[in-house]
Write a structure and sequence with these properties.
By secondary structure, the protein is an alpha/beta fold. It is built from 10 helices and 6 strands, in the order H-H-H-E-H-H-H-E-H-H-E-H-E-E-H-E. Helix 5 packs parallel to helix 8. The longest helix is centred in the middle third of the chain and has 14 residues. The N and C termini lie far apart (46 Å).
Length: 227
Amino acid sequence: MFNSLINLFFPKVCAGCKSFIGANEYVICTFCRHELPLTNHHLSLENEAFKKFYGQIPVEYASALLYFHKKGIVQELIHNLKYKGHEEIGTVLGEWYAADLMNSEIAKNADVIIPVPLHKKRLKERGYNQVTNFGMALSENFNIPLNDTILYRKRYSKTQSKKDLLGRSEGIETVFDVAFTEKDANKHYLLIDDVLTTGATLEACSRALLKIPGAKISIVCMAMAHS
């Protein structure tokens, strides 16, 4: 009854289209769920996300849940997640993708989930890492621990969304580093991020993680930029 009153005066809206959502809907309305552009990367090991890293870094697996288009529903979701404090979007997408990936090799073989880190200053400004809830959902479903201390960002920089493609790649290889011990060796790390664009950030993170003896890398993202 109390919740009904709250919804009456402060109705919940869809994080994708801002329309009111019904009692049986959560975060994203049914219409938007059906309209979301799925990549179906989980159905093929040789998918376009995996091919993005050909000749760059050795990855065991790579995939993204959704296609990211300018001015599309996915851009609205990521914007609300990243800048509007709607962390629940990450949880929803993580639960959704975990169901798709449950029987995949990555769910069976990964040892640790690693979110792409924010610099401490950026984390203080935003109050949260937009990838954390996505990673926690995968962690709970796969029964794989999430570790947000091994990989860290050394340098504070402008947000990637405000840079062009060249700017996103420039100098990124020196931004990340790792703090590890012997117990972190010989593990398969599942690196996660929000949007795969040029791949420069994920490559830099992977190179840092590959400093760990015997490390293997796989990559999973919420979305992938698509022309």
